[in-house]
Amino acid sequence: MASNIGMMDSAYFVGRNEILTWINNRLQLNLTRIEEAASGAVQCQMMDMTYPGVVPMHKVNFDAKTEYDMIQNYKVLQDVFNKLKIEKHVEVNRLVKGRPLDNLEFLQWLKRYCDSVNGGIMNENYNPVERRIKGGKDRSSKGTLKTSKSLQSNNMSGDPVGLSKVSGPKQGRGGGANSSEIETLSREITELKLSVSHLEKERDFYFAKLRDIELLCQTPELEDLPMAVAIKKILYAADAKESALEEAQEYLYQAMNDGEADDEDEA
Fold first, then answer.
1. Whole-number pLDDT of residue 211
2. What are the CA-CA distances from residue 87 to residues 5, 74, 84, 108, 144 (Å)?
3. Which of 28, 66, 71, 97 is buried most deeply by CB count within 10 Å?
4. b/e per residue, 194-222, with b = 16+ CB within 10 A?
5. Are the CB atoms for 74 and 95 separated by under 8 Å?
6. Neighbours of 258 (CB within 10 A)
């Protein structure tokens, strides 16, 4: 079963954009960043979608903001894993920090697992919005309930949420944009889509390199070396602060000095 997915499995080459689209379409959500799934509520519903009724949704808090509340969601998830005999250790302490790399990796694994059950075919009677109401608080906006039927029809046709309704400029009865304006806007939209696609490919390219560096630094034989520790300090910096590099350099310099001192003592 997919509970034993290796790191080189194709599951870990699924991009952020594909993961988010898959989750949004299946669960009728509107996630724009991987970190938005760090609370564990989305993962609980992914399992509820795969095994309807197995997850006690009344215990899932979709409005979890604190680490304490997030951990409670992951406890629910781990209990479900245990009940289904899924041998997967959940790195809760890392996931609740909202680090994109950690959360993407876990979502990649979870998507692969869900796809492996019944060929990824979801029960057509499963209503994600209704199931979320059984949880703590629905993480989506109040308007979700009002538009759930239209969202469901869009998702059934494979159309990303809401895109079919904003594909072009609207025209009123009293006259709208002329054909040349429409043509100009269409060209601009096409150019923007191409630009976004290029940026996403470039981002994924560098993300893959960072992931390779992270895996290398996590190798048991290397992870305690000063250089590996210094690199991880930069990778795992909580924000984009400039001091991350300085802290890593200071740590490396100190470790090298300590090593030289030890060599002198031995001599």
1. 82
2. 11, 15, 9, 16, 35
3. 28
4. eeeeeeeeeeeeebeeebeebeebeeeee
5. yes
6. 11
**Domains of the chain listed by start with CATH number:** 10-136 (1.10.418.10), 195-259 (1.20.5)
The token pair that represents 217 in the structure block: 């630094």
Distance CA 115, CA 192 (A): 32
Alpha-carbon separation of residue 192 from 130, 160, 187, 207, 218 (angstroms): 36, 17, 9, 22, 38
Secondary structure letter of residue 32 according to DSSP: -
Rounded Cα gap, residues 125 and 22, in angstroms: 18
3-state secondary structure 115-182: HHCHHHCCCCCCCHHHHHHCCCCCCCCCHHHHHHHHHHHHHHCCCCCCHHHCCCCCCCCCCCCCHHHH
- Structural contact between residues 37 and 31, judged by C-beta atoms closer than 8 angstroms: yes
Average pLDDT over every residue of 180-201:
81
CA distance 168 to 197: 19
The answer to whether the pTM exceeds 0.70 is: no
**Residue 52 · residue 128 · CB < 8 Å:** no
User: Strand, helix or coil at 172?
Assistant: coil
Specify the length of the chain in residues: 267
Look at residue 152 and tell me whether its pLDDT is greater than 50.
Answer: no
